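WARN retry 2 of 3 for item q-0093 after timeout on previous attempt; input resubmitted unchanged.
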Amino acid sequence: MKLNNTKSKRLKQIGLRHFARKGYAECIFSTFNLLTSTPQDDLVLERILTKLYHIDLGIEDNTRDIVKKNKELATLREERKVRDEEVEAARAQQAKARTAVMQKEKKIKKDEKALEGKVVPSHNLQFSFAL
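OK item q-0093 returned
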């Protein structure tokens, strides 16, 4: 029974300290009390606690990474918003310039048609050919 008690203390030190902070203590203690009848059960419990510990550490690492990536994503979204506003301003400016060009082209066509309608009388023209 001394071996079992020593392992129990060791298991409590290894896994339960970590899981007690996380609020898993009740579940682990009840499982621990059910499985501590033999040394093999202690090994199984130690293995389970170790796996749970490493899984929990992985979850914490991934949570930190997710928080970091979300902050980066928020920054990128802000930059995108600024760039989108710049693009919209450039498009509006381009539309104004296109409208101005179209109006000037219309005026030029109108002036060309007005000039085509006017006929220059031929009797006023004098040509001199030098040979």
